[in-house]
Structure formats: structure tokens, C-alpha cells
Design brief:
Shape: globular
Strand content: 15-25%
Structural class: alpha+beta
CATH architecture: 3-Layer(aba) Sandwich
CATH class: Alpha Beta
Order of helices and strands: EEHHEHH
Largest sheet: 3 strands, antiparallel
């Protein structure tokens, strides 16, 4: 399933993305082979995700997440209760 997600970077900034394998993508970001933005801001922590029906919907939701204010992104993250453990990822 495709996902739209938010990461919190080590410098406190937030990054929005989409993927079809959430655990693998977060691991890639932390290895420095994810997005250029996150390479110099490691480690990153997954703070929010949404499952979407199609890749297109995940890409559209990523674009919408990018347009949100920092406060709105943090509110989304605060509303989602989950463990940082990869075993808890969908």
C-alpha cells in the first residue's frame, strides 16, 4: 500500500514524502540514501503516516502535507499515537 508520511529531522525540521514501503523508506532516509534534504539532517524519526489507496493519492497527499504550516503538521503528528519501532509500522 502507498503511504504519505512526515519525518522529524535531527534539526527539528519536518519532511513530507510518500512511499510504498514505509519501514524501508525511513531506513533509507537514516542511511543517507533517501532524499537530499534529509541526508544532512539525520537521524530522522517517523512522526506521522497515512495509508492511501493508490500511488497517485499518496503523491497528492504528500503535496498537501508540504503546504501545511509547521503547526498543522505537528498537530497531525500529535494526533497519531504509535511506536517509533519498525515492528509497529504498517
Amino acid at each position: 500500500m502507498p503511504y504519505a508520511y512526515l519525518l522529524e529531522c535531527a534539526d527539528g525540521t519536518l519532511y513530507a514524502g510518500w512511499t510504498t514501503d514505509l519501514a524501508q523508506r525511513v531506513a533509507a532516509h537514516n542511511r543517507g540514501v533517501g532524499a537530499r534534504y534529509t541526508r544532512g539532517r539525520r537521524p530522522v524519526r517517523l512522526v506521522y503516516w497515512e495509508e492511501r489507496a493508490t500511488r497517485q493519492e499518496a503523491m497528492q497527499r504528500e503535496a498537501a502535507l508540504r503546504r501545511l504550516s509547521r503547526r498543522q503538521k505537528l498537530a497531525l503528528a500529535a494526533g497519531q499515537q504509535h511506536s517509533d519501532s519498525a515492528s509497529q509500522l504498517p
